[in-house]
């Protein structure tokens, strides 16, 4: 069996929230040894939870993707049981280190010496406070690749602006282009599309730099502004402004030229999406419906009329879908080549025959949560299958290996670092 | 000038529309030589999608196509003809990567599947991007972007409980699929160069959402852990306050300053005496609907007196996580984005000079660059065929057979 593509590459990771950790999860999947550095003395926002020591009462209140620890109980180490963290923490190694405490910077520098890549996604000022810059890394290791992923950039007036993905998307114009067409943007949900873009293209950037280094022997600094990085995804709207001075606004679930919507199905909160791109789709669709009278009306006679009377058409389509299971609508329409599919909740995804046949979920054990099925890498490779080799990273799980084996710390030195608050597997009890 | 990161990489691009071309755009813009194969006379389907200048359709003026195909060369080949397939096999000999987005099974029908191409070039990386992947019961299903989100992504919990689930903007998920494919492709290339083995990468657009950090993986795992489903919340029921889009004099400011961050919001409002009252800081205050209403009135009084840009500046001074909701025009006019080089003017022989989104990220030692605008349909036919050793007589014969 060939080795995984990135076997032998070591990545240091001090990322926070989502975009950075998603980036390093791609690198870890591909076989890199990703070492995540966490501090026992700070509890990063939305990393290992919203609080270090939640009570059962706190968890009860939280939405499932944040608070649904197994059994809705915090147990001994809730920070190893947080669904948001455990989504991106597969295949990584982890250590605890407080760079700001005595001895911390020295250990950090020793890690840099033996690494190929360093990834961070903090506000510019946070890195200044930590004293970490590309020139500092280069002094330790001239060939190192550094990926920085600030919200807007490491230069300019926004370099320290605080943002999550939701805010970055607001600035680059995505928020005004999504959500219900007849409601104001205060009805919009929190989405993290720019975190997905940042993590993914950040991983691409590192791979491109590794490729370049192999050819030239040189490392480099990569600066990924998450805002600039996501803007290409809105290329169609940006070009429309460039060409026509038009500001795109949301179409809700409608399409620019097709008939498209999200329609209710039998059951509670069950939905299907249907898209009729052209006349051929319309004819096939009408046949599946059994050619009811309303389909013959003039206002639905051609593509332009249908688009013009889209809302009335939606009401008619909904009256048909309401009587059916969402999966049945999909099967009936797909059998005649019409695009239709259910809106799948999380249970639907786990039970979906297609995802199961393609082995999208992998069963993985982790000491603090037990055995569960996790989504794996979002692609398949024929010769080097990408698997979850290791479950969600526990805080400080690999301290011994990293300090003693990789950095050659003596038992004495290790004990001293432990006493200084660098090493452990638990946050202090008084941390909120 | 230093060379680009991928300037030694050759890509044969058999993709169409958005996801595939975005994957190869990333490769091309960071230096790879990308040869794009298009259907004679018709070309990439994106050429027929807008936007067009003045809304007048024109195959060389589609904003979508122009954006997605920078730095690529175009050759027209009708893969239904044996002569065209022979050209593809010649090109495969000198290429590192093939990216394709035909319906699964199509290339096999033409004798251009991975196994065959790898017998020509053993270290070839071939990436297939399809709606549902190369296997499985949905393999041949049709797809629309909204379906990707509904079936693969987190559409179910996007929107409000009172209404239907709602999609994201434009066609962003297809870009995300293309970006994911670019990571897998580069990973495979790194392995191919290191170990001398080629491989086939199977990218299912649906699965790029199942494995997305944009909430889907977390809600799936939350369900695994607890059996609880993540659905849509009722309107206005965000966690704590202030949270969400608040109206300013000229638009909205998106703000996340509830719970732990509440003191920052107080400072943003100038720390008025009313907000020093201990009731705001008592346990449970962030869940109290009456207090929320009282606070909403205060923040509205403040926000409506400011433009969203002013409110953003004040909020950031208090380290409040926040942002204005910009239109495309406001973004294109933003001084900071302009001075950092977030946009770039590209001149195209037919479409003229237009402003485009620029580099996604800055590689300091191997820069992103625009070496050429999106190609005209078949612009590089002669150049590529002559390089492969076809004479001008051969090219005429290929043209007469309808192969190019």
End-to-end Cα distance of chain B: 36 Å
CATH architecture of the largest domain in chain A: 3-Layer(aba) Sandwich
The fraction of residues in strands of chain A falls at 5-15%
Helix content of chain B: 25-40%
Largest sheet: spatial strand order of chain B: 3-2-1-4-5-6
Distance between the termini of chain A: 47 Å
Keywords:
heterodimer; A: 432 residues; alpha/beta; Rossmann fold; formyl-coa transferase, domain 3; 2 domains; three-stranded antiparallel beta sheet; 12 strands; elongated; B: 404 residues
Can you offer a commentary on this structure?
The complex is a heterodimer of chains A (432) and B (404). Chain A has 432 residues and is of the alpha/beta class. Chain A contains 19 helices and twelve strands. In chain A, strand 10 (361-366) and strand 11 (370-375) form a beta hairpin. The radius of gyration of chain A is 25 Å and the shape is elongated. In chain A, 54% of the residues are buried. The model of chain A has no long low-confidence stretch (mean pLDDT 96). Chain B is α/β, with parallel strands linked by helices and 404 residues long. In chain B, 37% of the residues lie in helices and 15% in strands. The longest helix of chain B is centred in the middle third of the chain and has 24 residues, at 172-195. The model of chain B has no long low-confidence stretch (mean pLDDT 96). Classes of the chains: A alpha/beta (432), B alpha/beta (404). At the A-B interface, helix 1, helix 3, helix 4, helix 8 and helix 9 of A face helix 1, helix 2, helix 6, helix 7 and strand 6 of B.
Sequence-ordered SSE layout with sheet pairings:
The complex is a heterodimer of chains A (432) and B (404).
Chain A: E1 10-13, H1 19-29, E2 33-38, H2 56-61, H3 64-67, H4 83-86, E3 93-96, H5 104-113, E4 117-120, H6 124-130, H7 134-140, E5 145-148, H8 165-171, H9 193-216, E6 221-223, H10 226-230, H11 235-244, E7 259-264, E8 271-276, H12 279-288, H13 303-308, H14 310-321, H15 326-334, E9 339-342, H16 346-351, H17 353-357, E10 361-366, E11 370-375, E12 380-381, H18 399-406, H19 411-419
Parallel strand pairs in A: 1-2, 1-4, 2-3, 4-5, 5-6
Antiparallel strand pairs in A: 7-8, 8-9, 10-11
Chain B: E1 10-14, H1 19-29, E2 33-38, H2 63-68, E3 72-76, H3 82-93, E4 97-100, H4 106-109, H5 114-120, E5 125-130, H6 145-152, H7 172-195, E6 199-204, H8 205-210, H9 216-226, E7 243-248, E8 251-256, H10 262-268, H11 289-303, H12 308-317, E9 321-324, H13 328-333, H14 335-340, E10 343-348, E11 352-357, E12 362-363, H15 381-387, H16 392-400
Parallel strand pairs in B: 1-2, 1-4, 2-3, 4-5, 5-6
Antiparallel strand pairs in B: 7-8, 8-9, 10-11
């Amino acid at each position: 069996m060939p080795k995984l593509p990135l076997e032998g590459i070591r990545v240091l990771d001090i990322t926070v929230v989502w975009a950075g950790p998603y980036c390093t999860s791609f690198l870890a999947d591909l076989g890199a040894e990703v070492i995540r550095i966490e501090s026992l003395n700070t509890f990063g926002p939305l990393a290992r939870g919203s609080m270090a020591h939640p009570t059962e009462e706190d968890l009860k209140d939280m939405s499932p993707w944040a608070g649904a620890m197994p059994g809705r109980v915090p147990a001994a180490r809730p920070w190893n049981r947080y669904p948001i963290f455990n989504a991106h923490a597969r295949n990584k190694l982890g250590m605890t280190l407080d760079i700001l405490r005595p001895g911390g910077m020295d250990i950090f520098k020793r890690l840099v010496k033996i690494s190929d890549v360093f990834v961070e996604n903090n506000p510019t000022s946070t890195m200044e406070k930590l004293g970490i810059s590309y020139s500092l890394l280069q002094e330790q290791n001239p060939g190192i690749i550094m990926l920085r992923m600030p919200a807007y950039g490491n230069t300019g007036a926004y370099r320290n602006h605080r943002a999550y993905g939701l805010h970055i998307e607001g600035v680059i114009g995505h928020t005004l282009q999504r959500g219900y067409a007849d409601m104001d943007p205060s009805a919009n949900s929190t989405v993290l599309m720019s975190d997905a873009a940042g993590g993914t293209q950040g991983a691409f950037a590192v791979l491109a730099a590794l490729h370049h280094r192999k050819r030239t022997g040189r490392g480099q600094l990569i600066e990924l502004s998450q805002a600039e990085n996501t803007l290409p995804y809105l290329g169609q709207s940006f070009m429309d402004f460039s060409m026509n001075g038009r500001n795109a606004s949301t179409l809700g679930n409608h399409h620019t030229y097709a008939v498209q919507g999200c329609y209710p199905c039998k059951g509670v909160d069950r939905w299907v999406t249907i898209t009729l791109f052209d006349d051929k789709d319309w004819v096939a669709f009408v046949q599946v419906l059994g050619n009811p009278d309303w389909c013959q009306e003039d206002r639905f006679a051609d593509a332009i009329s249908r688009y013009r009377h889209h809302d009335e058409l939606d009401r008619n389509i909904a009256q048909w879908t309401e009587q059916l299971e969402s999966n049945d609508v999909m099967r009936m329409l797909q059998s005649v080549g019409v695009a239709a599919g259910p809106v799948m909740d999380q249970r639907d995804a786990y039970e979906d025959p297609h995802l199961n046949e393609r082995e999208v979920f992998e069963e993985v054990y982790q000491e603090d949560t037990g055995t569960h099925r996790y989504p794996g890498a979002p692609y398949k490779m024929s010769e080097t299958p990408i698997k979850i080799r290791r479950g969600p990273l526990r805080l400080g799980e690999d301290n011994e290996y990293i300090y003693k084996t990789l950095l050659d710390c003596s038992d004495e030195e290790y004990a001293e670092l432990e006493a200084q608050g660098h090493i452990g597997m638990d946050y202090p009890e008084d941390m909120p | 000038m230093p060379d680009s990161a991928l300037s030694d990489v050759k890509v044969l691009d058999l993709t169409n529309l958005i996801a595939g071309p975005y994957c190869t755009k990333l490769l091309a813009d960071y230096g790879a030589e990308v040869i794009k194969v298009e259907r004679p006379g018709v070309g990439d389907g994106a050429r027929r999608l807008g936007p067009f200048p003045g809304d007048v359709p024109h195959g060389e003026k589609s904003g979508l196509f122009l954006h997605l195909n920078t730095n690529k060369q175009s050759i027209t080949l009708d893969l239904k003809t044996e002569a065209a397939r022979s050209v593809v096999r010649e090109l495969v000999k000198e290429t590192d990567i093939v990216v394709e987005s035909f319906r699964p099974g199509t290339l096999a029908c033409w004798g251009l599947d991975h196994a065959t191409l790898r017998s020509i070039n053993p270290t070839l990386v071939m990436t297939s991007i399809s709606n549902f992947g190369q296997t499985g019961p949905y393999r041949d299903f049709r797809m629309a972007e909204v379906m990707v989100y509904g079936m693969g992504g987190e559409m179910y919990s996007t929107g409000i409980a009172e209404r239907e689930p709602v999609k994201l903007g434009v066609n962003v998920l297809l870009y995300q699929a293309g970006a994911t494919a670019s990571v897998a492709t580069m990973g495979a290339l790194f392995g191919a160069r290191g170990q001398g083995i080629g491989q086939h990468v199977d990218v299912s657009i649906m699965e790029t959402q199942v494995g997305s950090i944009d909430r889907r993986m977390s809600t799936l795992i939350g369900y695994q852990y607890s059996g609880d489903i993540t659905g849509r919340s009722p309107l206005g029921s965000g966690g704590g306050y202030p949270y969400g889009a608040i109206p300013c004099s000229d638009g909205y400011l998106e703000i996340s300053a509830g719970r732990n961050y509440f003191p920052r919001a107080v400072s943003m409002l100038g720390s008025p005496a009313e907000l020093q009252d201990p009731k705001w800081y008592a346990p449970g205050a962030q869940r109290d609907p009456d207090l929320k209403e009282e606070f909403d009135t205060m923040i509205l009084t403040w926000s409506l007196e400011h433009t969203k840009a002013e409110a953003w500046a004040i909020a950031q001074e208090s380290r409040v996580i926040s942002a204005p909701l910009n239109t495309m025009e406001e973004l294109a006019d933003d001084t900071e984005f302009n001075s950092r080089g977030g946009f770039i003017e590209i001149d195209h022989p037919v479409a003229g000079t237009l402003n485009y989104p620029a580099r996604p990220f800055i590689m300091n030692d191997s820069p992103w660059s625009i070496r050429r605008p999106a190609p005209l349909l078949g612009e590089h036919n002669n150049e590529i065929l002559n390089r492969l050793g076809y004479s001008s007589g051969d090219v005429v014969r290929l043209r007469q057979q309808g192969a190019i």
